[in-house]
Design brief:
The chain is an alpha+beta fold and 197 residues long. It has helices at 2-17, 36-43, 57-68, 141-159, 171-177, and strands at 88-93, 96-101, 106-111, 130-137, 162-163, 184-193. The protein has a single domain (49-193), classed as NADH Oxidase (3-Layer(aba) Sandwich). The radius of gyration is 23 Å and the shape is globular. The mean pLDDT is 90.
Length: 197
Amino acid sequence: MKKNFMAAVLFAALALSGFNAGAEELALPKPDTSSALMKIIDARQSGRAYSDQKISEQELSNILWAAFGANSHGKRTIPTGRNQQDLKVFVIYDNAVWLYDGKNNLLNKYSETDLMPYLDSQDFVKPAPVHLIYAGGKKYAEAHSGSAYENVYLYAAENGLSTVIRGLIDRDGLHKALNLNEDEVVTYHQPIGYPAQ
């Protein structure tokens, strides 16, 4: 009798609290977007119209640090699978192709080959003054690229820049043009610039 009474009380309490074990949806509280980070996430969007206004070296440094730099703890600004840190960020800037060295915050000139024919299947990308091309080891390249390009998105949202992630590129052509190893893949292209007015 006592057991049945306790079960009835528990059931009533759960019913009053709105708990339904068989529910197929759960209404959550409205997200609190009041913090600086949440506001930036809320502002993040893809942009497909760029002016040809030059990106300064300081702005470029900030963008690349967000993508794959070294933070104040001596770690990368993104997580990497098994700590392999094998992401490659190629940068088209100032009429050359550069490879970003995030540990030393350097751009090393990689090539003067025009890579735009591998990237410009959509006309809107052409005016952008900066283009990032992500590549890396086959196992984690997709995950590493995703972490890097999202950081760039957030930086762009906070600083009035426009960007979009693109998969409509000639990956095989880029693989060959960039002299990548067989165990490396090209993943995505990310143009960055000021929005067209």
